[in-house]
Amino acid sequence: MQFSTADLCDADEGKVQVALPDFIDYGGRKRFCGAISTVKVHEDNSLVRAALEEPGLGRVLVVDGGASRRCALLGDKLARLGMSNGWTGMVISGCIRDSAAIAGMDIGVKAIGTSPRRSVKQGAGERDVTVAFSGATFDAGAYLYADEDGILISPGRPV
């Protein structure tokens, strides 16, 4: 995968969004890109699991967890599920757990922190809706690029 968010940002300045640098790299893959699928939840990862159980088809799952630090929305089992189902990465406005195990997996994971506490499982939330956090808007079907420098969103098409 050959791209640089800095180069893409320069080439398409004014046409792409850049998320604020609120995220830490946790996955073994630091550079990833793909069409966006979204989940909006609050301290409940049921819809995260449901999404990752589907064929990823090289997509990136963007999770708006309301920046909650009270529990984790992703752990090693869900990260492994996403990896095996063809998801290229995840961007989580919330926490993960099992970070040492996730670091060894060939999947991109960016999140705002870690928490050992698991989430509730009530099935609450929304799928493939527009979500906004970290100064950016993430639309289902838009394209996301992530690397060590940050996260870039291109509306509806690869740049």
H/E topology pattern: HEEEHEHEHEEEEEE
Helix content: 10-25%
What's the helix count? Answer: 4
Specify the overall morphology: globular
Topology-level CATH name: Glucose Oxidase, domain 1
At CATH level 2, the architecture is 3-Layer(bba) Sandwich
Number of domains: 1
| Residue runs with pLDDT of under 50 for 5 or more positions | none
List keywords for this structure.
alpha/beta; Glucose Oxidase, domain 1; globular
Task: Tell me what you see in this structure.
The protein is of the alpha/beta class and 159 residues long. The protein has a single domain, classed as Ribonuclease E inhibitor RraA/RraA-like (Glucose Oxidase, domain 1, 3-Layer(bba) Sandwich). Helices cover 18% and strands 38% of the residues. Helix 3 links the parallel strand 4 and strand 5. It is globular and about 40 Å long. The two termini are 14 Å apart. The mean pLDDT is 96.
